[in-house]
Amino acid sequence: MSLQFMGLPTVSAEEADVLIVPVPLEATVSYEGGTSRGPEGICSASEHIEFLDETLGWCPYKHLELHVADPIVMTAGEDLAAHHARIESTIAALPNDRANLLIGLGGEHAITPGLVRPRMPEGGHIVQIDAHADFRREYHGSEYNHACPMYRLREMGYEITMVGIRSFEPEEWERAMADPGVAIFTDDDIQRGDAMDELLAHLDSLEGPVFLTVDVDGMDPSLVGSTGTPQPGGLHWYQMLDIVDAICGNPDVELRGFDVVELIPDEGRVSSMTAAKLVHYVISHWAWSKGYTDRPETGGQMRVDE
Known about the structure:
The chain is an alpha/beta fold. Helices cover 31% and strands 16% of the residues. It has one domain: 3-Layer(aba) Sandwich (Arginase, Chain A). It contains 9 helices and 8 strands.
């Protein structure tokens, strides 16, 4: 099944500035199912977003091209280890340079290590927006569970900034607090303290390759209520945008990738639209920071059905 983002035609991976990869994995769900429909829900909602980014006053799609890959679908009889290896090898086969951005659409959060390692083989920093730490060694007998991706990434040597967390197992908390390679900004400290300013200062201090991973349950349920394991509390919309702005606006950071995971498309479409609008915002602000405003117009901004 082929998908489009913003209803735009797709170009080859070699020609694209933004590489969008749907990964509809739903194999270790522990509460509510439906994340396999997440990529389709995001793409469908994106067709109803206007092209202009009103926060910057420009249309990024006049200056860049998108490639939407075929979804990486788990096949019958494929075990989790083999599937995650295939995610990684598929991402590794895509063009990977400082001039393009990878965007993964999930699917469950377990997909993130397979997106990160091929994009940042030299190491780097993960900024995680999430209600849960996802820092368990294994869960339900598997290290590939959706509760484990941050632990796996830390094992690979990536430093992690956890943002908006409001659900820890005791061993996760103790492990993360004892690890100098993990910085924690809990939702309670952000919403009821002064941690938001501290977080933005921390993001301003980062250097080198960065991957932003957003589990939609990290946001307030009024924005995204349709997700596998919702929690009360969470980031508000403009707090999310401030985080994106801090990363994209940091000249010492190279944003190598971004993913949105754990969405369950909802009947009211609010959750799907929020996720799609966030992808649109990241594309726009990444491209703005890379100087795409100075590039000649590509002749894009034409929806497939127009």
